[in-house]
Amino acid sequence: MRTRACTLVLLAVAAAACVRSDRKTPHAQRPNWLRDVPYVAQSVLEDTTGSPDAQHAVLLSPAPMDSVVAFYRRVLPPMGWRIVSDVGDSAHVALYLERQGLPMWIQFDAQGLQTRVAFTASAGASAGGGPAPAQR
Fold first, then answer.
1. Cα–Cα distance measured from residue 48 to residue 24, given in angstroms and rounded to the nearest whole number
2. Which tens digits make up the pLDDT trace of 67-113?
3. Is residue 24 part of a domain?
4. CA-wise closest residue to 99 among 69, 77, 118, 74
């Protein structure tokens, strides 16, 4: 009888350990600082990541890099983005922009006839075009 009671207790403990809680901790709401930044036509969003302090999005455009860079240089200033820094060459261009204290970096990389575009926006790390986020 004692063995049976011990076995039942062990089974009950094992079953309790296997039961999963269906309660999920809600994820913290991330700011979406890039929500109104337009994408070049026919671009494909490859990746998005973020935290409460920063947001990152990567897309691949079928257009050549000079066309994609020209698009953002033309479209973003009327939206309130001020271009603080614009440097690059035929294979890579880096833009640093600010709007109402919010900094944004855009990295353009030529990939054959396509262009990889990486956006990074960060909370409060503005002022003076600080170091650009890690590339690639």
1. 22
2. 999 999 999 999 999 999 999 999 999 999 999 989 999 999 999 99
3. no
4. 77
Residue in this structure with the two tokens 């039942």, named with its chain if needed: 8
Three-class SS string for the chain?
CHHHHHHHHHHHHHHHHHCCCCCCCCCCCCCCCCCCCCCCCCCEEEEEEECCCEEEEEEEECCCHHHHHHHHHHHCHHHCCEEEEEEECCCEEEEEEEECCEEEEEEEEEECCEEEEEEEEECCCCCCCCCCCCCC
Other beta carbons within 10 Å of 86: 14
- Per-residue pLDDT tens digits for 28-71: 666 677 888 999 999 999 999 988 889 999 999 999 999 999 99
In this structure, how many other beta carbons lie within 10 angstroms of the beta carbon of residue 100?
8
DSSP β-ladder status, 82-88 and 92-99: antiparallel
Residue 111, C-beta contacts closer than 8 angstroms, at least 6 positions apart: 60
CATH number reported for the structural domain that contains residue 100 in this entry: 3.40.1000.10
pTM of the model: 0.70
**Domain range for 112:** 36-122
